Amino acid sequence: MTCLPENPSGKKLGLVTDLDICVGCHACAVQCKEWNTNGISGPLSDTDPYGADPSGVWFNRVHTYEIEDQEDGTSRTVHFPKSCLHCDDAPCVTVCPTGASYKRAEDGIVLVNPDTCIGCKLCSWACPYGAREYDQAEGVMKKCTMCVDRIYNENLSEEARIPVCVSTCPAGARHFGDLGDPTTDISKLVAERNGFDLMPGMGTAPVNKYLPPRSGAARTKALGAPRMLSIDQPPKKKAGRLTSWIDQVLSGGKV
To answer: Is residue 44 part of a domain?
Structure first.
């Protein structure tokens, strides 16, 4: 079995997902699949992708739930993206018989070595989050890599060295950084918003965190009241030059 490494630096690179503003567009999942098709764990194999029974490997999936606000009794839709949580006490690592599943000492990222993976699926059975994917074509396990081939790529600008699920999120619901350092912006965000672990009772100590949906009043205070448009008085659009010219011609005015 594989042992978890010591992490003297305390660095823990991870993701924080804001469930309050995720719109469930699946852009993170699609972009993740596109990047990893040619990345360190690519290609991601698909079976009959355009047929009646398509299946494939997805590192990132978005679940959707309906919840009731206990404060005012209203209901709302919450979208819940989920991928590997890169746990501190990762059972997928300790159960691996070959050491193919391992946790990096320098940054806490959990990866799989396809050269030594025998496809026994023990890691997928041990993972309580269902974050492991078996590649039927290659006979090995695959998972989220935290875009390790991107975040350390010195050919990219500093701003671009973030996981693609973060860079592609149109709502800004995803954040990336060092969660092992309480002084980083991402750690402060978790503290301010009472970020939580997924299924803490499992004892896996996931690095990735979630920011809970806020109640109606708290959400309105933070984001502002939504703008309501009147049906009887729709907003007027500023006419372009061509539109103004056509209006003048049709009304018999001077051009």
So the answer is: yes
For 175, the domain range is 13-223
Number of domains in the chain: 1
In a domain, 228, yes or no: no
Residue 160 falls within a domain, yes or no? yes
On the 0-12 / 13-18 / 19+ scale of CB atoms within 10 A, 49 is: exposed
Give residue 158's identity as a one-letter amino acid code. E
CATH number, domain of 29, equals 3.30.70.20
So what's the pLDDT on residue 143? 93
Q: Tell me the pLDDT tens digit for each residue of 16-39.
A: 999 999 999 999 999 999 998 877
pLDDT tens-digit readout, 105-155: 999 999 999 999 999 999 999 999 999 999 888 899 999 999 999 999 999
